[in-house]
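Bench notes, afternoon.
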Amino acid sequence: MNRLKKYPADSAEFVVLHGERQQKRNRGLSMSFLGQKNPQKAFRLAKRLAVFPKIDDIYLKDVDLSGYICSVCDAQNCKLWRPYQTFEISLMCAKCACIDQKKDISKMDVDGKINDDTMGKIDQIGWYVPAVPTEDYTSEYRSYWGYSAVPGPGVDWWKKLPTFPKD
């Protein structure tokens, strides 16, 4: 399987994997990253920022996620969303977030995405974005990745959760 397909093209992981593939094929580096247009410098920067879990390591494997529950209906073991850019974090499952935000999610797919007329497929429900816990998450210190800062393993973890709570 092509590991490049697992990561967005502008992610550090993609830049590193692409660069390594180029080097194996005796080709020059060719990608820019985070405004760094020099491919060698961009590759070095991406290597410092890329997160690749160990092969048998699972994201958040030893993290207590007992606080990862919907603040409205107490749903757990499913995808949750949080308000965008706020310190008051109240998590909501897809069903509760759509009611709160007055959005139709009847056609939401298994990845938690819906079609938006202007933006295409999105994983946002109104002003709510995916709630992906950081590795230092605890039941006392609940921290979440910024919407555009979630590392590849965190994205994969969130996508694997069921989209809707079990009734």
